[in-house]
Amino acid sequence: MPDQTRDEYIRAGLRALGMERLGDLDKAVAPQRTSLQRVFTSRHEEMLSVTYKIKETISMLRDRGWDTHANLWNICLYANLIAHDLSVLVLEIYAGRDLWARNLAARNAALLIFESVEGLVQQLVHRRGNVYRVSGTRGGLCRST
């Protein structure tokens, strides 16, 4: 297929998907692609370090028998994993070169956000038989009995 015909098909496909301006995003991101990759790599390493520290803390709390505290730290671990997953998806959306992969990453990000909110609520509401509620006066978590 000649390049001109191929480009016309791509433009038509982008219009059909409502993504005519994807080329503008590519042009804006292209000079920063290497920088974005470096920032992501640094953030990735930091998030892995935080994940490890949270897991150590949970283990230490469980060893001491502080299950309520360990359960709250487990929620922090869940939030950290969500942030890490979103970071990977956002990098793919901005720096990815394939249109289908970008769309897939965007759909996965939307699904992850939706399911994560539900998952966080479930972890806060029912955690090993304990029910937590958000304190209205101090904005903290309290254990309901």
List keywords for this structure.
about 140 residues, 5 helices, mainly alpha, two-stranded antiparallel ribbon
- Which outline best applies? elongated
Tally the beta strands.
2
- Measured on Cα atoms, how large is the radius of gyration? 21 Å
Number of helices: 5
Mean pLDDT rating: 78
* Beginning-to-end CA distance, first to last residue: 69 Å
Low-confidence stretches: 134-142
The largest pleated sheet is described as: 2 strands, antiparallel
SSE string: HHHHHEE
- Largest sheet strand order: 1-2
What structural category characterises the helix and strand content?
mainly alpha
Q: Total domains, how many?
A: 1
Q: Which band does the percent of strand residues land in?
A: 5-15%
Helical content class: over 70%
Task: Kindly describe this structure.
The structure is a single chain. The protein has one domain (33-144). With 145 residues, it is mainly alpha-helical. The longest helix is centred in the N-terminal third of the chain and has 31 residues, at 33-63. It has a two-stranded antiparallel sheet with strand order 1-2. The model is unreliable at 134-142 (pLDDT under 50). Helix 3 (33-63) packs antiparallel against helix 4 (67-95). 75% of the residues lie in helices and 6% in strands. It is built from 5 helices and 2 strands; from the N terminus they run αααααββ. It starts with a helix and ends with a strand.
Short structural description:
It contains 5 helices and 2 strands. With 145 residues, the chain is mainly α.
